[in-house]
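Thread title: Can someone regenerate the structure for this chain?

I was given the following input by a collaborator and told the matching structure tokens would be attached. They weren't. Posting the sequence so someone can regenerate them.
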Amino acid sequence: MTRTEAKGALVLFSGGQDSATCLAWALDRYETVETLGFDYGQRHRVELECRDGFRAAIARTFPEWAKRLGEDHMIDLSVLGSISDTAMTREIEIETAASGLPNTFVPGRNLMFMQIAAAIAYRRGLKVLVGGMCETDFSGYPDCRDDTMKALQVALNLGMDTRFLLETPLMWLDKADTWRLAEQLGGEALVDMVRVETHTCYVGERAELHAWGFGCGECPACKLRKRGYEAYLAGENVTEAPV
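Best answer:
Regenerated them for you:
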């Protein structure tokens, strides 16, 4: 199956910058696009509250995309939060773990997300699964790597005897490129929509609107988003990890 043969897609949509950009990317390509979110007890659960607002803004601003925007699904995955001891699911300081990974890494998260997405897509007759996984992101999460996604696509297709296509449009983009992709897809209107209507901050701070969006400005996610936005405005790329 090729992209041109597929007509329907299911986007893993958290309410954050990356997944929102992926949603626009999918709406630009497929006839029907549904969305899927997960509540796993994340500290920044406020991002889930942004999902409806972004979907509504997309429908208002882009009539052609509005025709393609289908059903939204929300899954309670609190079991993942209950078995995870990470800075994403606990009120603990964000730091580097003994493994060398940041303690915001939630083991198995994207693997579970994609398995559930495949089960829903199977039932809904959707052949494309779209996720915002990115290997060039400085977090280094192993379940965001291209090899992981390719292996997972094989496993899902074998286990369900079907032909899913796992699309990761941000895989080789840095955060400046992600802002640029939003501009390419929907111009300044989409860039501003991503800036205001999405949420990335790990600690869930949404009191102050900065030039790059809402957030505490100090956590790794905020620093990366801020640096990416500034590099995007300057026509540059993000070449160093946030400090």
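Helices lie at 17-27, 46-61, 63-68, 78-82, 109-124, 146-160, 175-197, 220-234.
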